[in-house]
């Protein structure tokens, strides 16, 4: 009942939902949530392959690295979104066109 296929299926669902959120959302916070789902899908893959591939610690180390990376990414991205809101009074990514100049 506890097989690699089950973990990979959940990971594919998480990745698909995250990719859908990144591609279709215009809200900056929703895009960040999509990126977090994608990173969680990668973590699930690392841990599933570590468990079913011989219980080595490499998958756990990579998953810990991704968690640290996701925390740093979330802090920096939220600071950028707060700065965009203070300057433009919106968090809609499509409406912020003055950043290109």
Descriptive notes:
- The protein is mostly helical and 101 residues long.
- The chain has three helices and no strands.
Strand portion: under 5%
Helix and strand element order: HHH
CATH architecture: Orthogonal Bundle
* Unreliable runs: none
- Which structural class matches the secondary elements? mainly alpha
The number of domains:
1
The number of E-state strands comes to 0
CATH topology: Helix Hairpins
- Tell me, briefly, the overall form: elongated
What is the rounded distance between the termini?
55 Å
Give the C-alpha Rg: 17 Å
Binned, the helix content reads over 70%
How many helical elements?
A: 3
Could you outline the blueprint of secondary structure elements for this entry?
Elements: H1 4-24, H2 28-52, H3 58-88
